[in-house]
Amino acid sequence: MKKFKVGIIGCGRISPFHGMPAKSQENATVVACCDLDIAKAKDRAKLFGCKQAYTNFEEMITKEKLDVVHICLPHYLHSPVAVRAMELGCHVLTEKPMAISMQQAEDMVAASKKSGKTLGVIFQNRYNAGSQLLKKCIENGMLGKIRAAKCNVTWCRTPEYYTGSDWKGTWEMEGGGAIIDQAIHTIDLMCWLLGYGDNGSNLDYADVSIANRDHQNMRNTTGALVDVEDCADGLIVFKDGVRASFWCMNYFSFDDQVEISINGELGNAKITAEEGRVTLYDGREFVAKPDPSEIFDYGGGPSYWGASHTKQIDDFYGALENGETPWINGELILNTTHKMIMGLYESGRNQKVVKFCAPQPAKKAAARSKKK
Q1: Which domains does the chain carry?
Q2: Which has the least CB within 10 A, 54, 59, 90, 218?
Q3: Which of 205, 234, 192 is nearest to 333 (CA)?
């Protein structure tokens, strides 16, 4: 069995959710970590059981002859680092968001095709037990024709979240606020459940409002004004007439459980945190909750992130071993979730309805992942 040599780029809060699952792979070994703060890189290297720490990712890739890198960096660095890593011969798995512009995301997919290297993007909530239950019930017609959907994300981001950062709160580096950072997983999940396909061709238009209501007149550590949205609401309309609405904000008193509700002709479906519940009008009810046996020790981090990072990373390495395209790949996300998020921002920032154009065909996912 080939052992992929793995490096972690970026050693902040999210890095254990990549490094620890990568460490657990039978066909991979984490050999090095990289961060501009060498102390952070050394700390994570110790956690992941590797000896090497770097401050330059290109040096790390070259010296360690890496096969795979995980990108856990600020949003604006996802694209340039991913592109360069693929040019240097590495497969890439990056945290969300894929990028902060359409051009950046397109550059990533182009680099993947040119280099022949795999590009994956983390959207782990699709693997949750509740998500899988709802997807199955919707696809097999148990809910009948879908009428509408909605989702809510009400979390807490204190002033220090922005004022203590050198990149948060700016369009140029974060790429947005509550939508792209806090609500992106939930909006992605809602639209995936509605079946927006492999290429997003059934997206019709979006009408969005955004505002900064509770983080005004703040500046981050670079002196940049915090000017991204801390709340947003909107309507996403599909070509089959289904209307999906969302509301998100990050000035609640704590990170409350996310909610997704879907109404169909024959019943209702709801996700609360990771739990899924389908209630049919004929009296039947189906429930899926997280399996306690699937708890994974990431070495710290919010408990509500669950075990699904591990499931997606397992699939990613399985696809690499078999020479397949992972289910959640860069081209898929470019043409669906990323295009949609960029459209939401175009609508909100310009206060106009945005129509979605037809995308380029995306690669089909590997056969092993069609069950998702």
Answers
A1: 4-123 (3.40.50.720), 125-290+330-369 (3.30.360.10)
A2: 59
A3: 192
Separation of alpha carbons 15 and 70, rounded Å: 8
User: Is-contact 168 225, C-beta < 8 A?
Assistant: no
pLDDT tier, 368 (very low <50, low <70, confident <90, very high otherwise): very low
- Residue 363 above 70 pLDDT? no
pLDDT exceeds cutoff 70 at 303: no
Alpha-helical runs (H) found in the chain:
16-23, 38-48, 57-64, 75-87, 102-115, 129-139, 159-163, 184-193, 308-322, 330-333, 339-350
Whole-angstrom Cα distance, residue 193 to residue 264? Answer: 12
Residue 274, token pair as written in the block: 């990771």
97 cis-preceded (ω within 30 degrees of 0): yes
308-322 vs 16-23: helix crossing angle, rounded to 10: 50
pLDDT attached to residue 298: 84
What distance in Å separates the CA atoms of residue 282 and residue 29, rounded to the nearest whole number? 51
Q: What is the pLDDT of residues 243-267, one digit of tens each?
A: 999 999 999 999 999 999 999 999 9
What torsion, rounded to 10 degrees, do the Cα atoms 201, 204, 205, 206 define? -70
Q: Please, are residues 117 and 91 in contact by the beta-carbon 8 Å criterion?
A: yes
Q: Which of 270, 258, 95, 120 is closest to 193 using CA atoms?
A: 270
Residue 22: alpha-carbon gap to chain centroid:
17
Which of the four pLDDT bands, split at 50, 70 and 90, describes residue 324? Answer: very high
Strand order in the sheet with 52-54: 52-54, 28-34, 4-9, 68-71, 91-94, 119-121
For the chain, helix (H) and strand (E) counts, in that order, are 11, 15
Q: Provide the mean pLDDT of the chain.
A: 93
Across the range 315-332, mean pLDDT stands at 97
pLDDT at 366: 45
